[in-house]
Amino acid sequence: MFGVLLLLLLFPLLLYIAAPQIRKMLTSGMCTSTVQLPGKVAVVTGANTGIGKETAKDLAQRGARVYIACRDVQKGELVAREIQNMTGNEQVLVRKLDLADTKSIRAFAEGFLAEEKHLHLLINNAGVMMCPYSKTADGFEMQMGVNHLGHFLLTHLLLEKLKESAPSRIVNVSSFAHHLGRINFHNLQGERFYNAGLAYCHSKLANILFTQELARRLKGTGVTTYSLHPGTVKSELVRHSSLMKCMWWLFSYFLKTPEQGAQTSLYCALTEGLETLSGNHFSDCHVAWVSAKGRNETVARRLWDVSCDLLGIPVD
Ligand SMILES: NC(=O)c1ccc[n+]([C@@H]2O[C@H](COP(=O)([O-])OP(=O)(O)OC[C@H]3O[C@@H](n4cnc5c(N)ncnc54)[C@H](OP(=O)(O)O)[C@@H]3O)[C@@H](O)[C@H]2O)c1
To answer: What is the spatial distance between Cα 61 and Cα 141, in angstroms, rounded to a whole number?
Structure first.
């Protein structure tokens, strides 16, 4: 009894002493690349806030022409101006992209291909988490629709440009949450059963499987691709869940800032010699462990075919 009481009294003290170390561990991983990007072109989806904004800022700082691809152009323009002022790089452009609408994705790609000769970096960053059940304009479950299918179509439409611009890279922002994900082909749109948290995990697993299959298909083209977990980051991602908002607030001391959260995306986009690791998953600027479900080639191939089918892309 006395021992338990002592432990209960000591626990807050131990936590207080250990907190800075725990925080250091959870916020580690810096992209140390000194690569400069004059003449390079980058597209960052969902770059009007959070991790995407910090990724775009860093790429602009290095001299790239950066496209902020976002659904709210007004928000995007404010951010573009902020990045221009901070970096002195005028080449920060905003284009409308709503990943919940394939018409918008096609219009974005069409506009981009008409105005740009090259694309060196595609950062598939935008994401939605734990939203109530809803559907995209094309009838896909929102999280699978935006996080996976939207980026799948966007990548497909920009792939030739990426190949022509090689060496080039595609970076897919996934999550540690993929560990809880499953690809339920019989319920991909969550119509039989829907849980907002699990649906996020499924879509993030899809990001990883997409990256692996894409890497296999891109062998020898000079285009490489990576998936990553950015860490647990203080951002607007939790907007749909009061519980997650509370958790984020409670543990905010241990969360990464969006700038820290952007480091692994930047690492994957910029680190020299990473080409041999195409298809791998990263976290804290290191190769990271992927669940067995995330390494299943058969599921990856089937997901590819099903995604093509849903999006009206000819299966090859
Ligand atoms: N924060 C974390 O702890 C964490 C952990 C693991 C993985 N991630 C991943 O990191 C990525 C960035 O998230 P974040 O933390 O920076 O979250 P965030 O601050 O909420 O940013 C998400 C971005 O995605 C955009 N977006 C959402 N739906 C869209 C749509 N239909 N079309 C176009 N853009 C859309 C948002 O635009 P609006 O502003 O217009 O809504 C916003 O720009 C996401 O893929 C997320 O899954 C984050």
So the answer is: 36
Nearest Cα neighbor of 228 from 210, 240, 216 is 210
Q: How far apart, in whole angstroms, are the C-alpha atoms of residue 121 and residue 254?
A: 30
Res. 262 pLDDT band, cuts 50 70 90:
very high
CATH of the domain at 143: 3.40.50.720
Query: Is 49 within a domain?
Result: yes
Q: How far apart are the first and last CA of the chain?
A: 68
Per-residue pLDDT tens over the stretch 46-93: 999 999 999 999 999 999 999 999 999 999 999 999 999 999 999 999
Tens digits of residue pLDDT in 265-307: 999 999 999 999 999 999 999 999 999 999 999 999 999 999 9
57, 70, 238, best to mutate for ligand 1 pocket (most atoms within 8 Å of CB): 70
The whole-angstrom separation of Cα 81 and Cα 79 is: 5
* Domain count within the chain: 1
Active site residue 16: no
Q: Which of 67, 200, 226, 267 is catalytic?
A: 200
22 assigned to some structural domain? no
Count CB-CB contacts under 10 A for residue 194. 15
Ligand 1 pocket residue status of 236, Cβ below 6 Å: yes
- For the ranges 60-74, 178-192, 198-212, 247-261, the lowest mean pLDDT is seen at 247-261
Domain that holds residue 215: 36-311
Q: CA-CA distance, 146 to 133, in Å (whole number)?
A: 13
The CB of 143 under 6 Å from ligand 1? The reply is no
Q: How many other β-carbons are positioned within 10 Å of the β-carbon of residue 189?
A: 19
Find out whether the beta carbon of 128 lies less than 6 Å from any atom of ligand 1: yes
Residue 281 inside a domain? The answer is yes
The Cα 205–Cα 4 span in angstroms is: 41
Judged against a pLDDT cut of 70, whether residue 15 lies above it is answered with no
